[in-house]
Structures are given as C-alpha cells and as structure tokens.
Design goal:
With about 575 residues, the chain is of the alpha+beta class. It contains 16 helices and 22 strands. It has 5 domains: about 100 residues, Beta-Lactamase (2-Layer Sandwich), CATH 3.30.450; about 160 residues, 2-Layer Sandwich (Beta-Lactamase); about 55 residues; about 190 residues, Alpha-Beta Plaits; about 60 residues, no CATH class. About 40% of the residues lie in helices and about 25% in strands. A hairpin with a 5-residue loop joins β6 and β7. It is elongated and about 135 Å long.
C-alpha cells in the first residue's frame, strides 16, 4: 500500500513550466500533494510515443520498452506502458490513462532464479542457461534479463539519462545469437505454441526455445530460454532433451504472471500443489494443521485433508498398493482380471470354534485383532497383499498388484515370521486368562486369475483358480499331519535353495488326477539345528521306502524316529499306513 502513489504533470501558473506532483491515496487530490518535483517536469507525457499512438489508434495498446520518467528516488526505471484513450461524453478526446509496469522486479526474479540454479549446479559450475523476455519487433530490445547491465546503459548523448541497449549491440553471447537468428533472421514466429531453434555463435552451439506472449491486445514479446548444447547433452540422455528445455520454458512462461502474484497466495498454493502430487502417488500422511488468511485457499486445504482422510480409510478396506497404483495411473477401477503366476496362502486359528464358544464376543474380537495384526505385519513386510479376512482365516497372495518375481519366498518367509511371532505372543500371555493362539498355514504357487471381481458397482481385488483352492486344502491338511505350515511342490521348488522343508507325503486333491507332493516348511537354511536336519532326512528316506512299497524298511526307520518324536502325527500316520499295507497291500 505504501508504494501506491498518484502523480500528475501540471503547468505551474507562476513559472509556466510543467512540474511533477505526487499524492498518497489518502490525500486530497489535487490540492494536497505530498511532494512537488519541478526538476522532473521536463518530460511532457503528451509527447511520449505511447500517448501519441493511443490517441491516434483510439484503442488500448502496449508501448515499447523505455525508461520511465521516474522520481527523485529512482529516476532510471525500465518498463512498459499500457495506454488507454478516453473521451468526453460528446466523443471528443479527453486524454490517455496508463498503467506502468516496472521491469526491474522481473529482472530481479530472473536473477534470483539463475542464482538458485547456479547453487544447485555445484560442482558442475554456473549454468549457461538464461531466461529472457525480448521485444519481437525489428527494433528489438531485451525487456527482462537476469543481468540488468547487459540490457541497459547510459545514454551516449545524455549521460544523465539511461536507455535500453538495442538488440544489434547486445554482448551476451546466447542473447546475441538469438537476436541475430530469430529477430534479424528468417525464422517464422508462430502465434501459438513454442518454437525450438538451434544456432551457433562464436563457435558455440546453442539451443533456444521461445514463444509469443499469448492473449488479446498483448505486447509483441517473446519469452525464451537459451542454453549451450554441451551443458545439457553432457548431463542427460538425448531422449530427455526436449523435456529439459520444456522445463525451462515453463519456468520462464510462468514468470510474467508469478511476479505480480502475492506471496500470500503463491506459497499456500505451492504447498497444495505438492500435497496433490504426493496424493497422486499414494502418499497420504497427515500434515501439521494450518490456517490460511485467504478463505478460498483455506477451504482448499481443508477439502484436501478431508479427501486424504477418505483415501486413508479406503486403504483399510482394499490393498494399499492397489490404491496407490490406481491413484498414480489416474484410471478408474474396472471389472476384469488377468492370468498370472503368483503365490497364495491361507491361515486360520487352530480350534477357533471351540475357543470362541467359551469367550465373550468382546474377547473374541480382541483375540482376532491380535492374530490379524501379527499376520498383517508378517505379510506386509514381505510385500504381500491381504485379500480378505474370513472369520478367523486370512487369505493373502504375493506378486500382485506390485510385481514381485520372488513371491514364493516372500510368502514362505511371512509364514515363518508369523509362527515365530505367535510363539512370542503365547509366552507373553502365558500367565493371563487369554487363550494361546496356534495357527495353520497353507501355501501354493501356480497359475491363477488376479483382478477386480464382482459387479461394476461393487468390486473386490482378489485371486481365483485351482491354485487358490489347493492353497486352501493345504491349510486344512495341517490338521491331518499335525503340522503348522504346509507348502506345495511348486512353492518348495522356488525356495529350496534358501529354505528347509520336509517332504511330507504324496496326496490326491479334488480336481487332480495325479498325486502331488506336499512339504512341511521348517525354517531358513543356516538356522535349523543339525539334529533336526538329520531327522528330516531320515523321514524322507522312510517316505521313499513307503512309496517303493518297502514297508519293512520304512517301518524300521519310522520306529527309530518315533522314539525321539513320540507326538509327531506325520510319523504315526505313515507308520500306521505301512503296518496296514504289510497285512494287505494296496492295488
């Protein structure tokens, strides 16, 4: 507000000279000027080109860049004028009203932008890229540049005044080459869209990108940027060349507008822009509560936070990776699926029905929350996706929606971690009334269909197929063999170089004509005791004897193992089967 002043030039009745009188907005115009400057009244504005042209044209127009009349504080200010003629009611000419735009602030903005860019360029050194605004006429001047001394000088005919340097006398290499090739050259300057130009001056190759200032009655200005080819070609691939120059053009094109926008508006809008980009890639973290003095900006900020709350709630019902993928792609979720080779796991609580019947509903919910929390931690840290909660059971899969070629290992590792955490949980609640939680897990790897299933108005991101059914049946087999983790042969083959498993049996499942081997997952290689490894090897020897119908040899090995593992149901099961077949061999 303090910088807004009203000025007029009027003839002093005593001296007959024009004098500049200035007023503050609150003063009584024209009787109470706060300053009178008789020394600055020598420039009659009616002789200025903008006054004459506006009067002749009879319409608003932009002037060429020139040195303002100024004041005693700052008499040498480059700028442009938007002049509008106005008339009496009878149509006779009254005068010209102007809006003067100071170009020093625009030059300062260019300088700050270049200084910031040079600081970021360390250790590469200062950049050769320069942004500028140039008059597009043949009698061209540079209107705005980061170094004011490159475009403005003392008037040779009047050292007390200043003038803009003509285009043909420019000394800055990039600008001079641009002027010679574009303004004086044969380059066609389109009214719409940017234009790229390559040129060489003083043996240095440059690339420039420029565009006309668009809009009705806008001045004939070119907004552009030039840069040495060696600079950007040495730092980026050729495929990024256009992107690099477009970035500079976007910065330069936004300068003319942003110089005249209050920081009280631009800063919160920039913050909102960054938040919107973060939301676009799925970053929904809460930010510090803020209030903004501009009501519309404050409303935008509040609405953005409400949107993030809604998206965070949405992530609790569907896989987080799926939400982030949809946000990043900009696509709406659609019905459909695709074939994929993934790993699926089912897990549920042992004897859940019996346990829950003896507990109040509130305690059942707490127990399920502890169980689901442990599984969620183990699944998420191995990049798995929880498909759904089915009562006490949890269905999950690995390899989608984010591709993961090591999905089988991730699933197995999640199962081992979950069992380890459940064991720690049982120790923690040992002395409490809470029931201990034991879990059975089945894992299978195979071809299936993954995608959005359901109806167009109600979708569920899930997996379907025989491989899913097999994983569910493997989970149930744990009850039969007394194990806690059973994996399929496909899964074991994918992880056998890193994990230890016991070949448990060959089973026949519904929908399969051939038997499939199943494995009990034991642990990671290097973390399993030698005795356990020897017992696993002996069990697999007994299983091979059993499959070869060498019942006696198998019984002998199993009886030895039973002494050290009297409660191992898988040993007892295979032993009883061998004894039965000793009496009556199968077909």
């Amino acid at each position: 507000r303090d910088e807004i002043r009203i000025g007029d030039l009027a003839q002093n009745p005593d001296t007959g000279n024009l004098e500049l009188r200035e007023y503050l907005p609150g003063d009584s115009y024209p009787d109470n000027p706060y300053r009178v400057d008789p020394d600055r009244g020598h420039g009659d504005p009616r002789l200025r080109p903008w006054y004459i042209k506006a009067k002749q044209a009879g319409r608003p127009l932009w002037s060429d860049a020139y040195i303002f009349l100024g004041t005693g504080d700052n008499p040498n200010v480059p700028g442009v004028t938007y002049a509008t003629p106005f008339y009496h009611e009878d149509g006779s000419f009254m005068g010209v009203m102007t809006a003067d735009i100071d170009l020093l602030s625009l030059c300062g903005y260019f300088n700050e932008m270049r200084r910031s860019r040079d600081e970021q360029a360390v250790p590469q050194g200062p950049t050769s890229a320069v942004a500028f605004v140039m008059d597009g006429t043949k009698d061209s001047h540079v209107i705005a540049f980061h170094d004011i001394e490159q475009i403005m000088r003392k008037n040779p005919d009047d050292p007390s005044s200043w003038e803009l340097i003509p285009g043909e006398e420019l000394t800055e290499t990039g600008l001079k080459g641009f002027y010679e090739n574009v303004i004086e050259g044969d380059v066609q300057i389109p009214d719409e869209g940017p234009t790229e130009i390559d040129y060489t001056i003083s043996g240095i190759a440059y690339t420039g990108l420029f565009q006309k200032l668009r809009g009705a009655d806008m001045p004939n200005w070119l907004i552009g940027v030039t840069i040495e080819e060696n600079e950007y070609m040495g730092r980026i691939h050729a495929i990024l060349r256009e992107t690099f120059l477009w970035g500079f053009l976007c910065l330069a094109a936004g300068i003319v507008v942003s110089v005249f926008v209050s920081r009280r508006i631009s800063q919160p809008l920039q913050m909102l822009s960054m938040e919107a980009q973060a939301i676009g890639v799925g970053k929904l973290d809460e930010v510090e509560e803020r209030r903004f003095p501009i009501r519309e900006v404050d409303s935008l900020f509040r609405a953005k936070e409400e949107m993030k709350k809604g998206l965070r709630s949405f992530e609790k019902f569907v896989p987080r990776e799926l939400v982030r993928e949809l946000l990043a792609s900009g696509r709406e979720a659609e019905l459909g699926g695709e074939r994929a080779y993934l790993t699926v796991a089912f897990a549920d609580i042992v004897n859940f029905t019996s346990i829950s019947e003896l507990m109040p509903p509130e305690e059942v919910v707490k127990m399920l929350s502890r169980f689901h929390g442990i599984l969620y931690q183990s699944i998420s840290e191995t990049h798995g996706t929880i498909d759904k909660y089915i009562g006490d059971a949890v269905m999950s899969f690995w390899g989608a929606p984010v591709e993961n070629p090591d999905h089988a290992f991730g699933a197995c590792l999640a199962a081992l971690h979950a069992q380890a955490r459940l064991a720690e949980e049982r120790k923690r609640i040992k002395d409490s009334s809470a029931p201990p939680i034991h879990c059975r897990i089945g894992i299978n790897t195979g071809d299936l269909v993954v995608g959005n299933m359901g109806i167009p108005d109600r979708l569920s991101y899930t997996v379907i197929g025989d491989s899913v059914n097999l994983a569910s049946r493997l989970e149930g087999l744990n009850r039969y063999y007394g194990t806690d983790i059973i994996v399929s042969e496909n899964t074991y083959r994918a992880v056998s170089d890193r994990l230890i498993a016991r070949k448990l049996d060959r089973v026949y499942v519904k929908g399969k004509t051939q038997g499939v081997f199943v494995y009990q997952l034991i642990g990671e290689k290097g973390k399993v005791e030698e005795k356990t490894l020897r017992d696993l090897q002996r069990y697999e020897e007994a299983l091979e004897k059993y499959l070869d119908r060498s019942w006696e040899d198998s019984i002998r090995i199993l009886e030895e193992l039973q002494k050290g593992h009297p409660n191992d149901k898988s040993i007892l099961l295979l032993l009883s089967r061998c004894c039965k077949f000793m009496e009556e061999a199968p077909d």
